[in-house]
Amino acid sequence: MKRIDRELKTLKLMVAMYCRHHHGGDRLCADCQALYAYARERSLRCRFGEDKPACSDCRVHCYKPQMRARIREVMKFAGPRMIRSHPLLALRHLWDRRRDAKTS
Q1: Are 100 and 57 in contact (CB under 8 A)?
Q2: d(Cα 14, Cα 101) in Å, to the nearest integer?
Q3: DSSP assignment of the chain, as one string?
Q4: pTM of the predicted protein model
Q5: 66 to each of 38, 47, 63, 72, 79, how far by Cα in Å?
Q6: What is the per-residue pLDDT across 52-65, written as a single tens digit (0 to 9) for each?
Q7: Pick from 35, 51, 61, 104: most CB atoms within 10 A?
Q8: 86-92 long-range contacts, CB within 8 A, separation 24+
Q9: Quick check: 10 and 78 in contact, CB under 8 A?
Q10: Looking at residues 35-62, what average pLDDT do you find?
Q11: Is the distance from CB of 4 to CB of 53 less than 8 angstroms?
């Protein structure tokens, strides 16, 4: 699986976890769906392509400030919970961030 595909899968799971806990229901609410669509589009259009770093470690912040704050809130909530629910994706995400830090 390509890194970008894995990142998008991780992102969708994190937004879903956040939405389920904060907004209830089995599907993403309209706000969370819009956040995921925005973040997905930004990831797919990243100027660094396949070599893109984790967004939090990037030197070019392409998110609008409001959306960046929202995605940080989602990550702060879902990140620690990913270890229990999706340990392989969580570990790969941490590994990718560590690798990016070494190459920067």
Answers
A1: yes
A2: 22
A3: --HHHHHHHHHHHHHHHHHHHHH-SSS--HHHHHHHHHHHHHHHT-TTGGGPPPGGG-SS--S-HHHHHHHHHHHHHHHHHHHHH-HHHHHHHHHHHHHHHHH-
A4: 0.85
A5: 12, 21, 8, 10, 20
A6: 777 777 788 889 99
A7: 35
A8: 86/10, 86/13, 89/6, 89/9, 89/10, 89/13, 90/10, 92/6, 92/10
A9: no
A10: 85
A11: no
Q: Are 17 and 81 in contact (CB under 8 A)?
A: yes
74: its two tokens: 């989602």
Tokens 């990037």 -> residue = 58
